[in-house]
Amino acid sequence: MKTYRVAVVGATGMVGRKMLEVLAEMDFPIGELLPFASAKSAGKEIDYRGKKYTVIETNEENIKKYAPEIVIMSAGGSTSAKFSPLFAEAGGVVIDNSAYWRMDENVPLVVPEVNPEDAFNRPKGIIANPNCSTIQAMVALSPLHKAFGIKRVIYTTFQAVSGAGVNGYADLEEGMKAIADGEEAPAPKKFTHPIAGNVIPEIDVLLPNGYYKEEQKMIDETLKILHAPEIKVTATCVRVPVYYGHSESINIEFEKKVTADDVRKVLEKAEGVVVMDDPANHVYPTPLYATNRNEVFIGRIRQDFTVESGVNLWCVADNIRKGAATNAVQIAKLITEKE
Ligand code: A2P
Fold it and tell me: Which residues make Cβ contacts (< 8 Å) with residue 324, sequence separation at least 6?
């Protein structure tokens, strides 16, 4: 079997470490593993399948020296802006988890269950991994769009603190501890308000149109991935005191007359989807259930009686797995299996 020189850039970070875990679980054909991070981590050791690997500093010289064939990257936007083109120039296919390249018209934005063919048209040698909230919504909406034609979507998200990195996670952990100890919560490091015992309708920076950027990302990325600029999309994104797993209430209006049962039947056959929908027996997905699983879980599929043809559903996935690491590794698999 052909094997590859695989770089994980940001290998010391929360998503990078999960990428290594998913690469091992999926038995990715790695000939040589190359963990890259910043100068600060160079020389540290990381573990992959019981073996130690030394972290490599990400710089031009090392990129040329190691010339990885597959580069899976989760090291932030500015790192990706600087180094992705260099990895591509050195012959690598770059799969980048940051937001930096996502809306570049010469960079495909790929969810393997939805638009795998786009991964093979990459003029810059770079493929972007979509935003975590967008990925899970796409796995749910793409088969419905193909079957019935979507006219309008309203997203309301309930997003875990792990999506805001280590400091977001710490804000919830420390806040919960303070509540348990009957003390006042410490000032948050990451969020603009305490997150323990709270919800915060603010994710990413405020845009001039009144939306926070996470909301705009969901709107723009949905249209790009589905190749459907005609769909009307709006979003409200909310941070909730949950460690892992993003939940989404999705209201969909269709072009064709569709019932909740029609939607359920399509989703039961959809790739990457697990339908958990028996509300009488309290069966629906929750973020705790979705944690550490790779699929997108869907429940509460029900008619929206206020429009001609509309359905509401509840969609949950692990934001660090399907929302980031799993999707990126699945893209890498697409490339190695087809090229
Ligand atoms: P490092 O640990 O050396 O700072 P997280 O999102 O969990 O904070 O992880 C971010 C990841 O991106 C880390 O692995 C981090 O490495 C890496 N990173 C940050 N800045 C750079 C950079 N300039 N070059 C390469 N990797 C970077």
Answer: 15, 18, 19, 74, 97, 129, 132
- Domain 134-319 CATH superfamily: Dihydrodipicolinate Reductase; domain 2 (3.30.360.10)
Tell me the pLDDT tens digit for each residue of 19-77: 999 999 999 999 999 999 999 999 999 999 999 999 999 999 999 999 999 999 999 99
CATH topology of domain 4-129+324-338: Rossmann fold (3.40.50)
So where are the chain's domains?
A: 4-129+324-338, 134-319
Q: Is 186 in the pocket of ligand 1 (CB under 6 A)?
A: no
3-state SS assignment for residue 72: strand
158 backbone dihedrals φ, ψ, rounded to 5°: -130, 95
**Which of 12, 45, 73, 94 should be mutated for ligand 1, with most atoms under 8 A from CB?**
12
